[in-house]
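Dear all,

This email documents one entry for the complex benchmark we are building for the journal club exercise. For each entry we list the sequence lines for every component of the assembly. Then comes the predicted three-dimensional structure of the complex as a token string, followed by one or two observations. Please use this as the template for your own entries, and keep the labels exactly as they appear.
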Amino acid sequence: MFTESTAGVARWWPADGTSTVDIADRSHLLHEGDDAVALYEIIDGAAMIYRTSIDGRRTILGLRTQGALVGLSSGRRYVCSAVAIEPTRARRISYAALERAIDNDPRLARRLLNVCTEELSRSRERLLILGNRTALGRVAALLLELAQSTGGAKRPILLPLTRLEMGESLGLTLETVSRSMSRLRTAGIIDLPRSGVVIIRDRARLEAIADGSGDGTSGSRLCA
Amino acid sequence: MFTESTAGVARWWPADGTSTVDIADRSHLLHEGDDAVALYEIIDGAAMIYRTSIDGRRTILGLRTQGALVGLSSGRRYVCSAVAIEPTRARRISYAALERAIDNDPRLARRLLNVCTEELSRSRERLLILGNRTALGRVAALLLELAQSTGGAKRPILLPLTRLEMGESLGLTLETVSRSMSRLRTAGIIDLPRSGVVIIRDRARLEAIADGSGDGTSGSRLCA
DNA sequence: CGGTGCATTGACAGACCTCAAGACGAGTGG
DNA sequence: CCACTCGTCTTGAGGTCTGTCAATGCACCG
């Protein structure tokens, strides 16, 4: 359904309601609770979406990179906050202009629906991870996700998240994240050459751990 | 955004591609991996959406009741399975007819977008629960959700889920679910008159537990 | 040089999972 | 009607994993 490519979404945006904005690292695109006045498409960079509980705990709902839409909301207000985790450029599309454009061009609606269902898939993927993975599996899955967005196959990952943020993203404490990373390093699966950098040495085993196939630290069957 | 009421979505469906289907308890609406040919709107009853991992473990991603759309997918195939958890009637809308209808009526697109973002909200809500709630809090949250869909304020909840399914829904084992229910009963917060029935005796404390405000089993501040 | 923020590591406690036994209810066949 | 089976639920004991608290190390910066 709604299977059209989203690569060209940009050229479908209404001309009158869009502008380009630059967001510094750790600056907000939008705040939970604010009036939902605009949607953002990430052109370059990355952001994380999060919500804060009454008790002050933050839960990071996901990371978004180039091409993703941030600010989708079902009500009049944003339900999540979004903050850049690296210097980011985004296209800002006003809701008012967008709704007008939808009425004029049904193809835009289909593309938006497509993006929205993809967003759903990502949320569900994360639910699977939180629902039945151990700490090690969750960390492995996050590293693979980060490796994908950082791009390179064997290139080092420049971690855009602190251990605390990784923990908030995975439902773990920063200590557990740190210990999991250390276990992966000891097992020879990753390298931690210096703070903020990760190198994946054995992607197959990392994937096996992320998929829940044992803890992968002792003779993986996938690498036999 | 897309804030129009969805109460009247039904009358917007394309006439040519829709039909009504009745699904027995524990029968499937659709299977993960099948060609995505139709969307279902639940008219009456309830269904659960789930995915199965390679290792055979099932993760229940959520429950859907009257008005919800089941079968939203970003690709050519369904990414989740959906099974009725009580006798259910649903409206089946073929994707082909739906896409045509979208092109003819932009209001439909906006309503669909609205439903889709609501779906997103539900997934995110569940992420929050799995990310930072204890077993007791998760069970409390699920009971409140079930109470809502069962309807009545103080009416008994006729559990549509087994302990195993509740566990698969919350990322817990069935034993932990059972123990949590027993703790809630011992604390006087719920009654378990017979198998498959739950009565909420102290909603305020149950909500406090679900929101993570202590374990609520010893003198809740909300009830002082 | 001290201060600050982040990461690592240890010790311990608590939460949850696993394995196991038994209870209960519904359905079936004698 | 009763015995039997089957699936589900409950409860216990013990082990593992993760959270909490705490100390230390490291890089960066004033």
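Observations: Confidence is low (pLDDT under 50) at residues 217-224 of chain B. The two ends of chain B are 40 Å apart (CA to CA).
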